Amino acid sequence: MIKRFEMTGFVRELYSRIRRKFHITITSLFLLSMTSFVVVLGTFTLKLLVSKGSSSCFPKLNRFAPPPMSSPYSYIFSNFGFRSSLPHPPFNSSLESKTLIGAPDHNGTLHSVTDDRELMRRAVVVCPNVTESSENLTPKVAFMFLSRGSLPLAPLWEKFFMGNEGLYSIYIHKSPEFVDEPSVTSMFYKRKIPSKPVQWRSATMVDAERRLLANALLDCANERFVLLSEACIPLVNFTTVYNYLIHTNQSFIGSFDDPRPTGHGRYNKRMLPKVSLADWRRGSQWFEVNRKLTLNIISDEIYYPLFRNYCNPPCYVDEHYVPTLVNKISPELNTNRSITWVDWSKGGPHPTQYVRKDVSMELLNRIRQGFDCSYNGQTRSICFHFARKFHPNTLETLLRMAPALLGFN
Predict the structure, then answer these.
(1) One Pfam family name from the record (predicted)?
(2) What is residue 219's three-state secondary structure?
(3) Contact 159/405 with Cβ under 8 angstroms?
(4) What pLDDT sits at residue 30?
(5) Model pTM?
C-alpha cells in the first residue's frame, strides 16, 4: 500500500510539472506570435504611408532614376558605357538641380562638383528628354571660353552680348590659380566653372572641353555650344550668330582626311580595331556643336580612352578626337567646317597672332566676306562668325571699329 501511495504521488507530481511547463510554453508562443504580428503590421503601415506620400510624418521618397530606355537619348547609356548601376549614388533631381545647376539666365549659381565622372553622369541624366524638358524654354546658345586666365577682350564681348539676355549662357574654364573675378556688373561675373590645370599638347585640353560641355548641358535650355578662347573675337552681331545656329540641325566641326604627316602620320595602330586609319580625321579645336553631339562627346567611354592613351605628341588630342568621333558616329550631323577663323598660312605649331597694327576694317571684312560655304543647302558668303588669334592690345582698336562693323552701340 505504501509503495502504491508513493507511486500515485509521484505520478501526480509529474503530471503537475508537465502541465506547468505546457502552460509556460503556450504562453511564450502566444507572446512571440503577438510580437511578430505587431512588427509585420508596423512595417506594412510604414510602407503604405510612404507609398502614398503622407505629408504629416512620412513624405514620399523621391529618388532620381536614369531615363527609361524609351528615352531619345537612351542609346547614350548603351553605346557609350553608361550602365543602370552607376558608380555614384543617384541625386534628387528636383532638389539638387536647383543648387547644382545654373539658373535659366547667365547670372545663375554654378555648382561645386569637381569629380569629372560625376559631372558627366549628371550632365547626361539631368535632361533625359530634351524635347519635353525644353518645350517651354527659349533656346539658348552656350558660349564656352577655354582660357589660361582672364579674358582681356571681355569689353568687346560684353558689347556683343548686350541686350540679348535670356538667349545665351556663358561658361569659363581657366587655370585654378586665377581666382580674380570681374566686376559684379560684368556678364562674366561668377561664370567660372570648377576647373583643373590644362597643359598644351596633352589630353587635359580635351578634358577641359568636355568639362565645359558638361556644365553647359546642365542647363536644359542650351541648344548650341560654341567653344572659344580668350583670343577670340566676334565677327558679326549676336542676332546673326543666334539665328544662324538655332535654325540648323548641323554642327560646325572641322573634320577632314589629311594624308600628310600632320594627319595620317599621327595615327597610332594601337587604336585598332575601334579606330582605323580610315576613321582618322583632323580639324580645328574651336568647334560648335548641337545638343545631341554634345551628349555623345561627354558620354563617350569607348573612343576617348584610346586617344588619351595613344595620341601623344606629335599627335594632339584636341585636333583629332572630336573630328574623328563625329566622323564615326554622326557624320551626317556635321558640316565638316568650323565657324571660327584661324590663320595658319605661316605654318608652325601656332596660328598667326594679330596685334594692334594688324587690325583694320579691311582685314575683318576679308575674313567675314571672303569665302563661300553651304548652309542648310544654300550658298552663303558669311562663313565665319568668330576669329582668333587677337592680342590684348587690339581691344581699343576693335572697340572703335565695333559700332560701324558689327552694329554694336
Answers:
(1) Branch
(2) coil
(3) no
(4) 60
(5) 0.75
Residue 69 counted as domain residue: no
Report the b/e string of 245-254 with b at 16+ CB within 10 A. beeeebbbbb
**Domain extent for 7:** 1-61
145 within domain boundaries: yes
Cβ-based burial of 49 (10 A; exposed 0-12, middle 13-18, buried ≥19): middle
Residues of the chain above pLDDT 70, percent: 71
Same domain, 162 and 46: no
Residues 137, 44, single domain; the answer is no
**Tell me, what DSSP letter sits at residue 68?**
P
Final residue of a domain: which of 37, 61, 85? 61
236 and 299 housed in the same domain: yes
Q: What is the pLDDT of residue 94?
A: 35
Structural domain includes residue 43: yes
SS3 content of the chain, % helix, strand, coil (to 5): 45, 10, 45
Q: Which residues contact 128 (CB under 8 A, 6 or more apart)?
A: 66, 67, 71, 73
Same domain, yes or no: 88 and 209: yes
Per-residue DSSP letters for 239-303? HHHHHHHHT-S-BB---B---STTTGGG--GGGTTTS-TTT--B--S--EEEHHHHHHHHH--SS
Q: How many CA atoms lie within 13 Å of 248's alpha carbon, on the beta-carbon side?
A: 21
Q: Is the Cβ–Cβ distance between 282 and 307 less than 8 Å?
A: no
Closest CA to 286 of 335, 225, 347, 329: 225
236/357 same-domain check = yes
Q: Does the residue 142 lie in any domain? A: yes
Report yes or no: 107 and 187 within 8 Å, Cβ to Cβ.
Answer: no
Q: What is the pLDDT of residues 267-318, one digit of tens each?
A: 999 999 999 999 999 999 999 999 999 999 999 999 999 999 999 999 999 9
Is the same domain home to 247 and 110?
Answer: yes
* Residues above pLDDT 90, as percent of the chain: 60
First to last CA, the chain: 131
Q: Please count the structural domains in the chain.
A: 2
